[in-house]
Amino acid sequence: MPDIALVTGTSSGMGLVAAVDLARAGLTVVATMRDTGRAGALLAAAAAAGVELDVRPLDVTDAAGAAACVDGVLRDHGRIDVLVNNAGRGCVGTAEQLDMDTVRDQLDVNYLGVVALTKLVLPGMRERGHGRVVTVTSVGGAVGQPFADAYCGAKFAVEGFMQSLAVVAERFGVWVSVIEPAAVASDFVANVQRPDATDDPYAELFAAYLARTQSAFDNAQSAAEAGAAIAACATATSYAFRWQTSPGATAFVGMSLADLDGERVLGATRTWIA
Ligand SMILES: NC(=O)c1ccc[n+]([C@@H]2O[C@H](COP(=O)([O-])OP(=O)(O)OC[C@H]3O[C@@H](n4cnc5c(N)ncnc54)[C@H](OP(=O)(O)O)[C@@H]3O)[C@@H](O)[C@H]2O)c1
Known about the structure:
Elements: E1 4-7, H1 13-24, E2 28-33, H2 40-49, E3 54-57, H3 63-77, E4 82-85, H4 100-128, E5 131-136, H5 149-170, E6 174-180, E7 184-185, H6 188-191, H7 203-218, E8 221-222, H8 223-235, E9 242-244, H9 247-257, H10 263-270
Parallel strand pairs: 1-2, 1-4, 2-3, 4-5, 5-6, 6-9, 7-8
Bound molecules: NADP nicotinamide-adenine-dinucleotide phosphate (NAP).
């Protein structure tokens, strides 16, 4: 019997690709998105790949909606073997530029929504002794970056949650992993939350940061490649907690994990606002 996968945020980008690639790998895929009226690109990609998807609505920040969605999948498919927490949203701005509603929005979509959905699928995975929880975090889940305070804060939080969960879940046959992409060409930049003020004391640094970010995205990895890496992690036959989607992402995360006093990361990211 094929594994049943639930993927969040499949209207665009990596989530769209991962959903199709998982179906191509033989899984039954429940592809979720906030607005199923936006499923056109996903369905076209699925048709081109010769696979079918079960498309359902899910806003990961809506706890009741998430519970109803998981209930519906369990009713119709019997179980969920693979959860891909892909939905997420970026945010630029340094602390003083961020209002607390924006910070909470970032936690809701990138952290609390992921935690809630993970809690919904874990009981069944634990009972069956089999499951995968794959969460798309970011290099920004391991490396703090200027003008990414709220986004990196939320992505660090979700990495901490998942790394803490990993060895406990593993005892019950559930593999918990994070995927850390660097810049990927998707709708991500267009969807980023931005501060209103552009003429504040940070304007010059912010402009330098945006210019540096633009050049990173000029050389971004394709969503096809990053999405394929997500599907590969979700179907891998050996376990690792931390996955990066490109050599650049691996180098960047590696720099931070080996940076005991924090100076290597600060030294590298200082140049971004020079
Ligand atoms: N692109 C990058 O450079 C990059 C780098 C590192 C990590 N990431 C992470 O990769 C993941 C996928 O991003 P992407 O690059 O593929 O960007 P994307 O094209 O903007 O895709 C993000 C997806 O998340 C969905 N989404 C946003 N808020 C949601 C919510 N409340 N509930 C359900 N779905 C929601 C969006 O759906 P709607 O159509 O409803 O808005 C969209 O389908 C995110 O977690 C992001 O943080 C991206």
